[in-house]
Every structure is written in C-alpha cells, then in structure tokens.
Amino acid sequence: MREPIRTIHPAWPLRLPALLAAAGMLLAACSGEPDAEATPLTTATAAESTVTVRDSAIDATLEAAGIAEPIQSATLSTKLMGSVTAVAVREGERVRAGQVIATIDARDIAARRAQVTAGIAAAEAVERDAETQLARMRSLHADSAATRVQLEAAETGLARATAAAASARAGAAELDAVGAYARIRAPFAGTVTRRFVDVGAFVAPGAPVVTIEDASRLRLRVTTTPAAGRLARGTTVRATIEGVPVEAVVEGVVPSAGAVYTVNAVVENADGALPSGGTATLRLPAGQRNGLLVPAAAIIAEGDLTGVRVVSGAGGELRWIRVGDAHGDMVEVLSGVRAGDRIVVPAAGSGGR
Predict the structure, then answer these.
(1) What is the 3-state secondary structure (H, E, C) of 52-94?
(2) Which backbone phi and psi does 206 adopt, to 5 degrees?
C-alpha cells in the first residue's frame, strides 16, 4: 500500500528562522556561556565618558637648579686670645637665643678690670676735690678774697677732673665689652651644625668656634635667563628640594654679569623636614606654549607604566604614554597620544579599568 502524500503547510518556511533563533537562545541559556557580544575594553559605558585630545595653551616653565640654604647662619668666634675653658654644645644640638656656647679664659681681662676700677676711683676722687676747690673759690671770689683768674682756674680744674673720670668709666665699659667675648652666645635659636674647638684649644681673635643654623626658612638662589626678570617680588612658584615638591615665594630678582639673572626665593620649613644644603630646583614661569592635556582621572598606572584607554575603530586599546606636569585636574601628555584621539574617562569612584 502506498503511503499518502504529506502536504507541507505554507507557513512553515516563514516560521523556520524564528524557531531556529529561539532554539539558539535556549541552548545558550542552558550552557551558561557568557555572551560573545560583551562590551569591548575601551568602549565607554554608563559609568564612563570620552574626551577628545586637543592642543591646548598651557603655562610654560623653565627649571633652574641651586642650593637650599638657611636664611640665618652664623659662624661664631671671639675677639680674645686665650684657651677654651668650656664648650657647652655638640653638633646637632638645638640652642636657644642667648645661650652660652663656649667660654674663653679671660683672667687677663679680670686683672685689667681691677686696674680700671682703681683708675675710676682715683679719677672720681680728683673730680670731688676739684668740685670742693671750685666751691671754695666761688665763695672767696664773692667776698673779693680771690681774683677772677683764680676762679677760672678752679673751674678749669673741675672740667679736667670730670673729663678724666668720664674717660676712666669709658675704659671700663670698653673692657666689659671685650670681656663679653669670653662667653660666646648664640645670636638666634637654631642647630649647631659644626663645632671647631674642644676644651683646652687655643683660639685667636676671629678663629671659628661653632656654626649655628636656623633652617626654619630656606633660601633658594638660582641663576637663570633674562626671562626671570619679569618675576615680581612675592610671586609664588613651584620648587623641589631633594625631590620633594614645595612652594617658594620670590624674595627678589637681580641682574648678574653675563646677561643672566639671580632669583632668590624663600621656602618655609618650620618642621625641619627639608634638608639644609639640599639640591633645589625652581620652576619659573616662561610664558605659554601648546601641549596635549588629558583629565587626570583618565590616567591608568600599572607599576612604572602609565597609560590611557584610547577608543579606536577596532574597539579600543590601552596605550602607554609619557606624562609631564599637572595643570589643575589635567595632566600634560608628552608622548603616546595625538590630537584628535578619543580617550575614556571613568566616572568618579568607578575605578580606572
């Protein structure tokens, strides 16, 4: 017996693609495999945006190197010649203003002081006698018992005695001033950075005893091009001291020989964190120039490498770059991107990648 001929319903060819698509979706759901059409790495999502890199006018700077020196620094010495009898400080110790640092043997000063004291006593005795003689002579002259010449002689004698007493007292003041050099005192609060002598050493006038520095304020002195001549006193500029970024205030700009300028800038260092005598660099403004800026939020750091996510026709890529200075919330890119590139900027708090 022949099998009956089956007739295909006309709607089947139209429904077949839909059924195949539904079957594919069911198989994918059952297998647990991820969707093959996932968002590419560098395609902006709801938590990201893109910006186009453009040439921008940025502030140009020039760097000048120098040394960070303490504003207050003094090497102490004496005007006496003698042996050191005491040194009250060591290197690295803090001292207060007026503190005794060292003592010099001043026994010869003591002996001279006794002589000066005796001289003052004698001069004052002569002065008192001259005063008495003048008073007597004035009384006699009033009674016509002494001539005018005798009275004037008595007045001259008193004047000479008064001058002699004043000279003796001035000699004592001078001796006291010289004797004060027997005790060397700190002129300001600071730190002892060098001690030149020990007890028993013999010193001469002008010989160094100790050096004291106050590093609470540092002065950066650099020599640079004439462009610095436009800097005004009080301008705040960026600087580094031993690699540590700081702010410096311009103290003054003066021309030097050879068509260069010397710039002095002051850095506050109240906590003493910055080293005195450290290598310093001043970054001085030098007009404007063109550069490529990207948002700091777009920068991706991986170890020593720095990159950005660049959108491209193929989907996107992580591109390594070399960065320069920060300008507010933007960072200059020195190489790795070109004007017109679109880069991905994550939303705040969404992470870098």
Answers:
(1) ECCEEEEEEEEEEEEEEEEEEEEEECCCCCEEEEEECCCCCCE
(2) 90, -10
Categorise residue 32: left if φ over 0, alpha if ψ from -120 to 50, beta otherwise: left
Query: In the block, which residue shows the tokens 């007597």?
Result: 136
What pTM, to 2 d.p., does this model score? 0.59
Structure tokens at 127: 């002065």
Per residue of the chain (353 residues), what is the pLDDT tens digit?
A: 444 434 334 443 434 344 444 444 433 444 443 333 333 443 445 567 888 888 888 877 888 899 999 999 999 998 888 899 999 999 999 999 999 999 999 887 877 888 888 888 999 999 999 999 999 999 988 888 888 898 899 999 999 999 999 998 888 888 887 778 889 999 999 999 999 999 999 999 999 999 999 999 999 999 888 777 678 889 899 999 999 999 999 998 888 777 788 899 999 999 889 998 899 999 888 777 888 889 888 898 888 899 998 988 766 788 899 988 888 888 889 998 888 888 888 876 555 54
* Of residues 241, 246, 282, 247, the one with CA closest to residue 261: 282
Q: Calculate the alpha carbon distances from 82 to 181, 197, 207 in Å.
A: 11, 12, 11
State both tokens at 64: 């000048």
Measure the CA–CA gap between 268 and 218, rounded to whole angstroms: 6
Cβ burial, residue 43 (10 Å; 0-12/13-18/19+): middle
Domains and CATH numbers, the chain: 48-58+291-346 (2.40.420.20), 61-70+214-288 (2.40.30.170), 75-105+189-211 (2.40.50.100), 107-180 (1.10.287)
Cβ proximity of 69 and 313 under 8 Å:
no
| Helix locations, 65-208, DSSP H | 107-142, 148-179
